[in-house]
Design a protein that fits this description.
The chain is an alpha+beta fold and 251 residues long. The chain contains six helices and 14 strands. The strands form three sheets. The protein has a six-stranded mixed sheet with strand order 4-5-8-7-9-13. A hairpin with an 8-residue loop joins strand 11 and strand 12.
């Protein structure tokens, strides 16, 4: 890592030809409240600054700016394949996968959970934007299915997201998860500040959904975007703010 662009890399077993990373908020040119490595072009920041930040990221990753597969994320469950023919478009989806070396699947977040998946054999990688709506709706299961390799051959890494001590949700969120899997009850506690609200552990919910899909090699978690203001953007904490990027690609 360089001091110019601090990055987070997954702590998982070395995989042949697989690269993954997550940015922090440091190392860019954006001004407050987007300071400084804002990579979201939809949050009110100056477009020129976002373009420069994305160029810095591409250079740091050793990729061309045209090799980053950005998405128009809508808190849904649609999956797209990132390939040379669609890199100039902005698909409406919340996860992507690729089998093409040198193309990076990219997810933007600022509290929602980014999840990276990689085939142990280095043949296919994918990334998902797993906010609670997408997670509950099955975005991780859809991505596992789309990657078309045995689930027990996949590794998953969970990047920075809102921590369980900060993620207060209403009863409708808990009910939605329990309607899909009653085991989800263990990811909710009744310690919310407001009556009839709950504290949710999005990392535990994601682990449960990955395990249900057959993925058992799961790494990461333990971050909190809300409390770690020096490193991470947080929409819940700040409202108007920037976005981090989580990338995975085949080298």
């Amino acid at each position: 890592m360089t001091s110019e662009l601090p990055l987070i890399e997954p702590l998982w077993p070395s995989l042949p030809g697989v690269r993954a990373l997550c940015t922090t908020r440091m190392g860019g040119v954006s001004q407050p409240p987007w300071d400084s490595l804002n990579l979201g072009d939809h949050v009110g920041d100056k477009l020129d600054d976002v373009v420069e930040n994305r160029s810095r990221l591409a250079r740091r990753a050793g990729l061309g700016t045209g090799r980053l597969a950005w998405l128009n994320q809508v808190h849904g469950t649609r999956i797209v394949e990132a390939e040379p023919g669609n890199l100039n478009r902005l698909p409406e989806a919340d996860a992507s996968f690729t089998r093409d070396p040198g193309i990076a699947c990219v997810i933007l977040t600022a509290d929602c959970l980014p999840v990276v998946l990689a085939d142990r054999m280095g043949r296919v990688v994918g990334a998902a934007h797993a906010g609670w709506r997408s997670l509950c709706g099955g975005v991780l299961e859809n991505l596992v299915e789309a990657m078309a390799v045995p689930p027990d051959g996949l590794l998953a890494w969970m990047g920075p997201a809102i921590g369980p001590g900060q993620f207060e949700v209403g009863p409708e969120v808990r009910a939605a998860f329990l309607a899909v899997d009653p085991r989800a009850s263990s990811a909710f506690s009744e310690a919310g500040a407001r009556p009839d609200h709950f504290m949710a552990d999005i990392y535990q919910l994601a682990r449960q959904r990955l395990q249900s899909a057959g993925v058992n090699a799961i790494y990461g978690g333990g971050f909190c975007t809300v409390t770690d203001a020096a490193r991470f953007y947080s929409y819940r904490r700040d409202g108007q703010t920037g976005r981090m990027a989580t990338l995975v690609w085949l080298s």
